[in-house]
Design brief:
Length: 459
């Protein structure tokens, strides 16, 4: 009995040490979440494609704005000819002529359709900027989820591996006790059954880890090296009311719905402008010169035109106006729906985060209770009031509590980032990543053609 108690105490102590220190073991080289997100931000093909799409949309504005500028063109043509006149008596008598003709023309159209088109195009491009911001935040959130999934899988694998090692030692001890005449085959079978279950658990955990690592490679383009549980994001809200208020201003879904509504309102103004008159002003200078004999003529001309829809096309424009009104009403409803959806997401994310915190605290208490239970089972086993089966059960309970607590810690961090994402504060700038931030509006201003059209209409 003394020998059996000594063995049980050693195994219990080994079990506590193995289970409690598996998650605490830190790798020599660790890659933080921020470092991984920097890699993702700089190398993501999806993010680069989104940037090119934004830059492509920016160029559309330059094209539309250029159409509002005066159109100046110059055309020149030279001719030379030799003609034979059969009426003349002298054979081979040719008449040579040569001329140079050309000129410069300028035309300018003044119409509210053109100015309104510049404004509408600007709103359309702004929608593209919001779409890029949405893509960036979605990719970063996916990267965070992938990073945390690896931590979850690694922790589960480590805990299950430690549990298997512990049960293998217990099986050897049970077999030794049986050989010494101090145990039974039933005790060996009980430990073997627990070991088989633990090995099944390690197989499942190992499979999850392989999948998590594969997803990590696909997302970040590198192998996960020493990932570690990150702290909570720095821009966490102090209250649910603050989170909801910030989301209504910053969530990309709400912003996109707002810009699309503004674009539709600008389009309605363009359609209404079709019912208004437009004016055309033209200046023309032409020169015709005889390049053989000298001399020539120069002509200057001006023109002014007025265009006003009266019938037919006016009815078309009125119909388009009604269409635009319907589109605006639809987009207003979509804006309200987007706001309601985002508000619901924020509320759900807030309560999920609060729940994860509460669960994490409960799991910590569970670990403490499981440790006491294991020590008590060992003590009662020494006293002969409990068996080795009770000790094994207590050890498995502690392992399960450790796995649940590890998952709970990951859930807290995941819930925090889900909440920040619902608020629309998960961009690279919001996370303060040490990278050169890609700002579509800044790129637009750097490449925008600065001319009279943009000065008058892009406000």
């Amino acid at each position: 009995m003394v020998r059996r108690a000594l063995v049980m105490r050693r195994l219990a102590a080994a079990g506590l040490t193995a289970v409690l220190t598996v998650c605490a073991t830190a790798p020599v080289h660790a890659e933080s979440l921020h470092q991984s997100l920097v890699t993702l931000y700089n190398n993501s093909h999806d993010l680069m494609a989104a940037r090119y799409a934004a830059e492509n949309s920016n160029e559309i504005f330059n094209q539309v704005a250029a159409n509002a500028l005066p159109q100046v063109s110059s055309t020149w043509q030279t001719t030379y000819a030799r003609s034979y006149n059969e009426i003349l008596e002298d054979a081979g008598d040719f008449n040579a002529t040569g001329s140079l003709q050309g000129g410069v023309s300028l035309s300018q159209t003044f119409s509210p359709v053109i100015s309104g088109g510049v404004v509408q195009t600007r709103k359309s491009i702004e929608a593209g900027w919001v779409a890029y911001d949405q893509t960036e935040q979605q990719l970063l959130l996916a990267g965070i989820q992938t990073y945390l999934a690896v931590i979850r899988s690694q922790s589960g694998t480590s805990l299950q591996s430690g549990n298997v090692t512990l049960l293998e030692n217990q099986l050897q001890a049970a077999q030794a006790r049986y050989a010494a005449g101090l145990g039974t085959t039933t005790q060996i079978a009980e430990v073997a059954a627990s070991l088989a279950e633990a090995r099944a658990g390690i197989q499942q955990a190992s499979g999850d880890l392989i999948i998590s690592n594969a997803v990590y490679r696909q997302v970040f383009g590198v192998e996960p090296t020493g990932v570690m549980l990150p702290p909570l994001p720095a821009n966490m809200p102090a209250s649910l009311a603050e989170a909801r208020s910030v989301a209504m201003k910053n969530n990309p879904s709400v912003q996109l719905a707002m810009v699309q509504l503004q674009e539709a309102e600008a389009k309605r103004k363009v359609t209404a402008a079709e019912l208004q008159p437009s004016y055309q002003l033209g200046l023309n200078a032409q020169r015709s010169t005889d390049i053989l004999n000298g001399g020539g003529t120069t002509n200057f001309s001006t023109s002014f035109g007025l265009s006003m829809p009266l019938y037919g096309n006016r009815q078309v424009s009125n119909s388009k106006l009604r269409q635009d009104e319907i589109a605006i009403r639809r987009l207003r409803e979509q804006l309200s729906a987007a706001q309601a959806s985002v508000d619901q997401q924020v509320i759900a994310a807030w309560h999920q985060f609060q729940t994860a915190q509460a669960v994490g605290q409960a799991r910590s208490s569970q670990i403490t209770a499981s440790e006491l239970s294991l020590r008590g089972a060992v003590a009662e086993s020494d006293a002969g009031t409990k068996t080795g089966t009770d000790v094994i059960a207590a050890q498995q309970s502690l392992t399960a509590a450790q796995v649940a607590a590890s998952n709970a810690r990951v859930d807290v961090v995941q819930g925090a980032y889900n909440l920040v994402a619902a608020m629309g504060l998960l961009s690279a700038r919001d996370l303060q990543l040490p990278v050169r931030y890609y700002v579509p509006e800044r790129e637009f201003e750097n490449r925008k053609l600065n001319n009279l059209a943009t000065l008058l209409y892009d406000r």
